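Re: weekly structure request thread

Next one in the queue (290 aa):
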Amino acid sequence: MALGYEGWAKMNVNGTEDLVLCTGASIPHSRLRLDSNSGYGGAIKTPAAGMGIGFPHNYDFVSFAGSLNFEAHAGVITNQILPWLFDRQKAASVSFQSRKDNISNHVECFWNSINLNTSSGSAVEGSLEFTALDFALAQGGDYIGNKTGDGYLCNAQGGLNIPDPIISNVMIPYWQTSVLADGSLVEFVSWNLDFSQDIVQFFVCENNVNPIAPKFLASGPMTVTFTGDYMFVNTSTWAIPDFLSTLRINIGTTQIKMKRGERDLDRDDVQTSDSPVPISVEYTIYELEP
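Done, posted below.
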């Protein structure tokens, strides 16, 4: 048994390792079971005239995948997320520690989806789903024993009266983000940026006595979608165009640059009586700029 706050996650895309402010992770290691349709493989021992309770089976291949949720800080955005987006067929490593000396290192990882989002009153949050060719597990147990945490999380000084509140290893708040559509600052109260691509696993027959990992992986086309809610007030001049020439999102000191956006929908719903009424928009993006 180990407490969640004693674990950690790390990413390494270009040889630089960053600790991820992980808020949750799932790292299943699966084997595909092949059941036979020819008969029963088990039995009920009592009574003696029992019937079968299972099928003859074998295992074909193993699958290593995972996902993690995190709060974004400057190092993860700059060193990990953006480089991986612009070199999307590059293999990276993702490591997890769930308890003392229990480290699961996923190597040759390719991302399936990456998400960044935020809204008023919250931090910039993200999620990552990946497929890996292999992983190595250092089995451990017991508690980690470090109950003091990492000091850099406590040393952050942020606030309206601090000259430089942006600190590289601390979560980025919503108020340190902005969205510019065709050069105009739009008053978004929440935004969501989704990147996805299909990762296809290829297996080969090698007369192996044990289940085998994929021989290699391939990446399908990338899809990029931006959604957001913005406040329409009489000072706003943004009119929800069908096409965007540029869309830029500032996250702390980092800017994500996109071009060629096409509007999928806009929605102006009636809300409850005590809620503000934002306008929702969604754009598909066709070009990223490094």
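The chain is about 5% helix and 50% strand. Residues 71 and 125 are 4 Å apart (CA to CA).
Next request, please.
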